[in-house]
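Ticket #4471: structure output looks truncated?

Reporter: J.K.
Steps to reproduce: submitted the chain below (247 residues) through the standard prediction queue, then opened the result file.
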Amino acid sequence: MSLSESELDRYDRQMRIHGWGIEGQRKLKTSKVVVAGIGGLGCLSSLYLAAAGVGTLILLDKESISLSDLNRQVLFCQSDLGASKAETAKSRLEILNPEIKVRAAVKEVVGRNIANVMKGIDLVVDGLDNWRTRFIVNEICVRKGIPFVHGGVSGFYGQVMTVVPQKGPCLRCIFPTEPPEVEVVPILGATPAVIASLQVMEAVKLVTGIGKPLVGRMLFLDGEEMTLETVEVERNPDCPVCSHAGE
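Returned output as attached by the reporter:
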């Protein structure tokens, strides 16, 4: 797939990165990415994925915009209160980059809905705010062989890990039992901004083939101490989700 003159101009700075070039940008143009959850993480990750030129973005979220979202969900503003997150984000991203396709999937994250959304998808970016739905997406991604870029945030803290089925651990390997849910997660808007940016780096690396993704490694952000730490994580040979996947 060729790039137009406007695309060559729009993506000029990133195509100058070693190993990227026109071929890397073509890979992004033909890629299809689901952003699951358009909250603090999903707003920022979808924004930068759109800016980078991911050809098709599918925004998955059934929620509406509330006032308490606006400290971190930067695609939305006061006049959007009560509107669909997915539909509103779609309209903003299309203004930012009319060269790409954006679809809004106003759906609840359940097995059947997710399976339908993920047809023909290259990867999924985690913008979810609870473990129950994360594990649903993790399992479907493993079953379908789709990479899943996990991200999670709370307060000044966050984490990122990339799940590539059959090449490293999945989320269930790391968390054999679901962590306790928090009804209202405390959060500074800058925290998901940092984690979402790291997720986009991971997504772009997976699509273009540049660099080394966080497969078998989890990166932790401590914003209070301003430290980043990467911890090796291993695949569980008895994992109920990925131990027999692909056999």
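Triage note (M.O.): checked the attachment and the full token line is present. The chain has one domain: 31-232.
Status: closed, working as intended.
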